[in-house]
Design goal:
By secondary structure, this protein is mostly helical. About 80% of the residues lie in helices and about 0% in strands. α3 crosses α9, α4 crosses α6 and α8 packs antiparallel against α10. The longest helix has about 60 residues.
Length: about 300
């Protein structure tokens, strides 16, 4: 008769195999629990890292900017620098509020010239880029003139434009357009020519017309390039408008922010000059951020440059 082994106390015991099986079961349970915890905590950790990155992208520049402004304010007060040499940030903000009626009118004038020039640059640049892609002879004939307009300093030809054009707003518009035109033309032309050649061959195989290929293939392929050029052209249009206003203001004709800067310099009203410069800088930043947001919204669903990656 077989008898199960007993422990010294006389009870029935467990063998080595049973003990090993029990330990293995416990280890497997712990491993499964750890794996489940890791699976659950993985997305949470990534989400926390993304939130931290978003916060730092905003907080760090704000901290640096605030420190710079506070250092500027402290330097002016400690060194007792006269306001006609270097005004304190607090005085600049005070003058900005006090002279807002004058500065806001000049800001509106500058913005009108900037956006009008940008609109003409977009229309002309995209239209000419389409013509370039449809005929290489058109591109060969006209592209050198676009390059000449780009490399010629606008400050050198602005006085000539003001002489030849009777209307000051039209002259300022032409100057701003010259600066903003080339990035739109160059980027859009590059984008239209960058469409996948295999897809072009496929369109030809199915008998697509030239305009169907343009509408359904080349224009979507050129969209990221066009939006990149638009972000550049927005700031350049503002720069062109300011430079043209400087030229017009030097002749005693003008009403934009550049004219206010010249006027303030002649009167040694340096705080107002800095206030006008602040408005120009903030305007340029807002233009860039607006077009960056537009680019993100238009590309985030389909283009690799804006699609959010999982890893």
């Amino acid at each position: 008769m077989n008898v199960s082994p007993t422990d010294p106390a006389g009870g029935t015991g467990t063998g080595p195999a049973d003990a090993a099986s029990s330990e293995s079961s416990k280890a497997g349970t712990m491993t499964s629990a750890l794996e489940e915890t890791a699976v659950k905590s993985g997305p949470d950790l990534r989400a926390a890292a993304e939130r931290r990155d978003r916060v730092l992208r905003i907080v760090l520049p704000v901290i640096i900017l605030t420190a710079a402004i506070l250092g500027w304010e402290a330097l002016v007060r400690i060194q007792e620098i006269p306001h006609y040499i270097l005004p304190a940030p607090s005085l600049i903000m005070e003058i900005l509020v006090k002279d807002w009626a004058v500065l806001s009118g000049s800001l509106i004038t500058t913005l009108q010239i900037t956006f009008a020039a940008l609109a003409v640059a977009v229309a002309g640049g995209v239209g000419l880029a389409v013509l370039f892609t449809q005929s290489k002879w058109v591109e060969i004939s006209f592209f050198p003139f676009a390059v000449i307009l780009q490399v010629t300093p606008i400050i050198a030809i602005a006085p000539l434009i003001l002489i030849y054009v009777d209307s000051i707003p039209v002259a300022l518009l032409i100057c701003a357009w010259i600066v903003a035109f080339f990035p739109i033309l160059s980027n859009t032309t590059l984008g239209l020519n960058s469409a996948d050649h295999n897809l072009r061959n496929l369109f030809q195989l199915y008998g697509a017309t030239r305009w169907q290929t343009l509408w359904y293939l080349q224009l979507p392929a050129a969209m990221p390039y066009f939006l990149g050029g638009l972000k550049i052209a927005g700031g350049l249009a503002l720069i062109g408008a300011i430079v043209a206003e400087f030229a017009a203001g030097s002749a005693g004709r003008g009403a934009g922010l550049a004219y206010r800067i010249l006027e303030s310099g002649y009167r040694l009203n340096i705080p107002r000059m800095f206030a006008a410069l602040l408005l120009i800088s903030v305007t340029g930043i807002l233009i860039f951020l607006t077009f960056s947001l537009l680019s993100h919204l238009m590309l985030r669903k389909w283009h690799e440059s804006a699609i959010k990656r999982e890893n």
